[in-house]
């Protein structure tokens, strides 16, 4: 067995080519540092689960065990629990989606759904078009299936349709195959911006004309602050959109339950892929969510989350205004994130060790691009720290940024 110099992994030469796409992301490396209690972490995207009614969840678990314990502890359907799939239709109806319960496939969070869809559609070197910036861990999945990721431009109203058109043309001219457009159109991760309704229609039209699937990833749509966002893209286009939803942000990520709503023709393949990967999604956590939704005011709970996150967003915007008035940032109407643009000559990645020394963490912008862009950007999350900690975190960040500007 030969080993690589400087490589302690003796199995290095055994890995499949696709494993080379599995490089640790900047976000991942950060978690260890940012979880120290003295650090104000504006880096992760952890929902504030303490705002959940813990007693109701405990009661739901008890009732599941009492009333249908053996079924909840057993393997289940590869497509997901029928009762929960019906309730998922109610969740999606809030964003204008009408669908058949037969077309919903339950997954282990929407991260798993990203993996299944990518596995079904991507051959090595196929192109995935994504917003620039885009969700880091979706890109890790695309890369692990050896996709080529290309970014379309975004502004305050989401991805720019003309840029998408130009992009499709140039990728095609290069003789490459585009499989899908991956988009987080509502309260995007990381930019915090929302695709306008007019643009949603335009993007759907462009993708329809060009035979490109739209992979609409929508974990944050119900967490709006100043009024509801436009309806989901899936609400007006059934055949060309694969829609991903999750309970991670409106309930809790620890359940690991999300779903795919796919065009009818794709559904069968998805169920087979789901079974091949995990046999069935967790009967236990699906049963708990289903029970919780049938006894709790789950829409009221989403309202509570909106209030919590609205207050935190406002705290972050106020602190940015007060401490870093010369920078630019997005103003999200929902979700978890603000995207900050630093002066051109600053590099958020090389600045990070200084920030951690000042006990504040953020995610460098380059994590959200496949092409090295984003050097002078950072993603700030306002979902987890309390408003006071957010303010203190931005104050510490201003010391670091102002120090860099003066250097
Ligand atoms: N997509 C986006 C845009 C996300 O922000 C996240 C979570 N950070 C996910 C998917 C994965 O969520 P889940 O917990 O449902 O796997």
UniProtKB/TrEMBL annotation:
Domain of life, per lineage: Bacteria
Swiss-Prot/TrEMBL keywords: Aminotransferase, Pyridoxal phosphate, Transferase
GO molecular function: transaminase activity
A Pfam family of this chain: Aminotran_1_2
Residue spans crossing the bilayer: none
Cofactor(s) of this protein: pyridoxal 5'-phosphate
S-adenosyl-L-methionine among keywords: no
Domain Aminotransferase class I/classII large as annotated: residue spans: 54-397
Protein name: PLP-dependent aminotransferase family protein
Naturally occurring in which organism (per UniProt): Rhodoglobus aureus
Higher taxonomy: Bacteria, Bacillati, Actinomycetota, Actinomycetes, Micrococcales
């Amino acid at each position: 067995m030969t080993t690589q110099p400087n490589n302690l992994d003796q199995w290095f030469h055994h890995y499949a080519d696709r494993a080379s796409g599995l490089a640790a992301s900047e976000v991942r490396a950060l978690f260890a540092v940012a979880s120290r209690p003295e650090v104000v972490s504006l880096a992760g995207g952890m929902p504030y689960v303490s705002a959940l009614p813990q007693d109701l969840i405990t009661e739901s678990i008890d009732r599941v065990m009492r009333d249908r314990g053996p079924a909840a502890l057993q393997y289940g359907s590869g497509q997901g629990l029928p009762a929960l799939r019906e309730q998922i239709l109610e969740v999606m109806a809030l964003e204008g989606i009408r669908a058949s319960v037969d077309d919903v496939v339950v997954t282990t969070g929407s991260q798993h759904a990203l993996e299944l869809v990518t596995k079904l559609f991507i051959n090595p070197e196929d192109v995935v078009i994504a917003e620039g910036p885009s969700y880091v861990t979706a890109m890790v999945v695309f890369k692990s299936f050896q996709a080529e990721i290309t970014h379309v431009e975004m502004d305050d109203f989401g991805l720019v349709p003309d840029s998408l058109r130009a992009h499709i043309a140039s990728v095609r001219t290069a003789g490459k195959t585009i499989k899908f457009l991956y988009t987080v159109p509502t309260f995007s991760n990381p930019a915090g911006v929302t695709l306008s309704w007019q643009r949603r229609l335009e993007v759907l039209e462009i993708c329809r004309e060009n035979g490109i699937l739209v992979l609409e990833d929508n974990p944050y749509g119900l967490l709006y602050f100043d009024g509801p966002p436009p309806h989901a893209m899936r609400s007006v286009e059934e055949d060309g959109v694969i829609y991903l939803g999750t309970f991670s942000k409106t309930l809790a990520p620890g359940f690991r339950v999300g779903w795919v709503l796919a065009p009818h023709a794709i559904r069968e393949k998805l169920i087979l892929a789901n079974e091949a990967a995990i046999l069935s999604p967790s009967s236990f956590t699906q049963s708990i969510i289903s029970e919780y939704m049938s006894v709790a005011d789950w829409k009221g709970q989403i309202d509570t989350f909106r209030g919590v996150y609205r207050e935190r967003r406002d705290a972050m915007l106020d602190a940015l205004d007060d401490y870093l008035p010369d920078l630019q940032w997005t103003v999200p109407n929902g979700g978890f994130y603000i995207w900050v643009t630093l002066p051109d000559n600053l590099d958020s990645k090389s600045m990070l060790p200084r920030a951690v020394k000042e006990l504040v963490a953020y995610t460098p912008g380059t994590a959200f691009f496949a092409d090295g862009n984003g050097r002078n950007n950072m993603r700030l999350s306002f979902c987890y720290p309390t408003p006071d900690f957010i303010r203190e975190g931005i104050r510490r960040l201003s010391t670091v940024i102002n120090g860099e500007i003066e250097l």
